[in-house]
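Example 9 (inverse folding). The structure is encoded as follows.
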């Protein structure tokens, strides 16, 4: 857990974005902050230094104990540490600001929807939720680099057939540093497949789709997924391959077999994401290649349930 915190705190883009947001939303001597998934307490420490009246930090892991020691070492006395998951807390203190940096490489893998939806019961009327919105993007991967690197099963040798293991391995999402040159059209044709707005009630089971007309012959090896989080209006964090690099990488969704697409054909993708607490995270993706008359030429259905070993 501390290794993750080390990565987070080493991410200057992330840290500066949250600092700028807190400078805007914190009212000196007035603001009460609920820090959901607080880790070492960094965001609450910033809020405290910016004049927050008090901060309530919810962290179920042992890293919260380090947070308490850090607060003491930094003479921060208005931070209250609760070593529980926020959903377990009954009658929580009301807050003017809810902040939750529980974003993963796949935006929803740390249950940010579930945590924020539950923590809305903490919020005073007119309070602020950070982040406010999340958009998820998707683009076809047309470079063989990642697919070839991860797909070792056909080359094991020794007269052994690893086809079953290959099938299970490919039905998973992978964290990779994906480059613009790995993407169709350099990533310019990326599509938003999911929009989350925390001013509304959001669901854990989400569906989305995307479609592209192929502009030139190419081979599709999988899909790249990334996100943009709008913390408040005008301040964003993005994990796009086209944006400055953060500690987060992108997600690669492979296919069981590459798709050879010709100019004028249509590539369709449908996705389903389930981040309910009892599920953890499950993602399924179906990719179809259609001719110009919408006849299905190829259909590949992938599901992490097939790869859950």
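The amino acid assigned to each position is listed next.
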């Amino acid at each position: 857990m501390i290794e993750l915190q080390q990565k987070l705190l080493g991410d200057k883009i992330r840290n500066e974005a949250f600092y700028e947001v807190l400078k805007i939303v914190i009212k000196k001597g007035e603001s009460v902050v609920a820090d959901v998934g607080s880790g070492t307490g960094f965001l609450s420490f910033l809020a405290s230094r910016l004049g927050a009246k008090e901060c309530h930090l919810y962290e179920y892991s042992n890293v919260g104990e380090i947070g308490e020691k850090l607060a003491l070492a930094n003479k921060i006395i208005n931070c209250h540490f609760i070593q529980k998951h926020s959903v377990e807390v009954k009658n929580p203190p009301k807050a003017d600001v809810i902040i939750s940096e529980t974003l993963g490489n796949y935006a929803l893998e740390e249950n940010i929807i579930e945590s924020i939806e539950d923590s809305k019961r903490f919020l005073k009327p007119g309070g602020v939720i950070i982040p406010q919105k999340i958009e998820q993007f998707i683009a076809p991967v047309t470079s063989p680099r990642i697919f070839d690197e991860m797909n070792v099963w056909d080359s094991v040798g020794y007269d052994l057939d690893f086809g079953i293991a290959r099938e299970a391995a490919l039905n998973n999402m992978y964290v990779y540093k994906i480059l613009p040159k790995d993407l169709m059209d350099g990533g310019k044709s990326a599509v938003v497949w999911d929009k989350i707005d925390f001013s509304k009630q959001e669901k854990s089971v989400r569906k989305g789709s995307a479609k592209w007309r192929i502009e030139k012959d190419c081979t599709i090896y999988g899909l790249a997924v990334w996100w943009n989080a709008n913390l408040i209006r005008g301040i964003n964090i993005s994990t796009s391959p086209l944006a400055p690099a953060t500690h987060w990488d992108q997600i690669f969704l492979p296919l069981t077999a590459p798709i050879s697409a010709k100019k004028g054909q249509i590539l369709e993708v449908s996705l389903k994401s389930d981040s309910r607490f009892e599920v953890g995270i499950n993602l399924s993706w179906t990719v179809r290649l259609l001719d110009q008359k919408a006849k299905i030429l190829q259909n590949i259905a992938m599901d992490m349930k097939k790869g859950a070993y």
